[in-house]
Specification:
Elements lengths: L8 E8 L6 H13 L4 E6 L12 H12 L5 E3 L2 H4 L6 H11 L3 E8 H4 L8 H7 L1 E6 L15 E5 L7 H9 L10 H9 L7
Parallel strand pairs: 1-2, 1-4, 2-3, 4-5, 5-6
Bound molecules: NADP nicotinamide-adenine-dinucleotide phosphate (NAP).
NADP nicotinamide-adenine-dinucleotide phosphate binds next to β1, α1, β4, α5 and α7.
């Protein structure tokens, strides 16, 4: 029918190493989905992070992300970063997602500490054009970066982000439980594959 304009889809792109994914990530994605009225949030586990020489094998991080997000109909997981060879750059992530979703408005969601480095990211000028950025932070954290384009970045404090992947890994390596910090299926996946054990 003439005159019926279709609403553009609003798609979140949740980028992170997810080593492992934890409940703070899930609460953050859910909060951003609700506050920005997103139709979907695509979790994109990083393949080879720029400045981390040793992270858990990408297939493990991908599968834990699939397990953690399976119950939420608005959450999906993409392999674009783990299937691409070489270091992961957000410009490539966004180009790939843009190709798959040419008609969607993209919202790149990540930790405030990561987003604070954005001006140093590859092809930053194009990065800005491809997505709006949402920096999610732990309580008390202020995003302070100057030189960002107006309206290019929003920030959102998420109390559940007091959980951290580093703390989860340390707990497992010391034999402490991570129940209720990560989804139950992820607790079981970590145990089954002996992840994060010291030696
Ligand atoms: P990171 O340095 O490991 O994380 C920095 C902080 O942000 C940590 O406190 C981390 O907590 C938190 N964080 C990371 N991802 C998060 C998320 N999705 N939601 C909430 N908190 C999050 O960052 P990273 O994981 O390597 O990278 C984050 C994203 O930025 C990835 O998509 C990565 O590809 C991109 N990135 C791009 C470039 C580039 O293009 N040059 C450079 C660096 C990063 P946890 O450890 O608890 O997650």
């Amino acid at each position: 029918m003439a005159g019926t304009a279709q609403k553009r889809a609003r798609v979140g792109v949740m980028g992170g190493t997810f080593d492992p994914i934890h409940n703070g990530h899930l609460v953050a994605a859910s909060e951003v989905q609700q506050q920005f009225d997103l139709d979907e949030v695509i979790f994109v586990p990083t393949g080879h992070p720029e400045s981390k020489p040793s992270v858990t094998e990408s297939e493990h991080r991908y599968l834990m992300t699939v397990i953690a997000t399976a119950a939420n109909p608005r959450f999906t997981v993409s392999r674009v970063d783990i299937d691409r060879a070489g270091v992961t750059y957000t410009i490539d992530t966004l180009r790939d997602i843009r190709k798959a979703r040419p008609d969607a408005d993209l919202f790149f969601i990540s930790g405030a500490d990561a987003v604070a480095q954005i001006l140093e990211w590859r092809d930053v000028e194009e990065v800005w054009k491809l997505a709006h950025f949402v920096a999610v932070s732990r309580p008390g954290h202020q995003l302070t970066i100057s030189g960002l384009p107006e309206q290019g970045v929003s920030s959102l404090e998420v109390p559940a982000l007091s959980i951290s992947s580093t703390d989860c890994r340390n707990r497992v390596s010391r034999g402490f439980p991570v129940w209720y910090l990560v989804p139950d299926g992820v607790v079981q996946y970590i145990a089954k594959h002996h992840l994060y054990r010291s030696s």
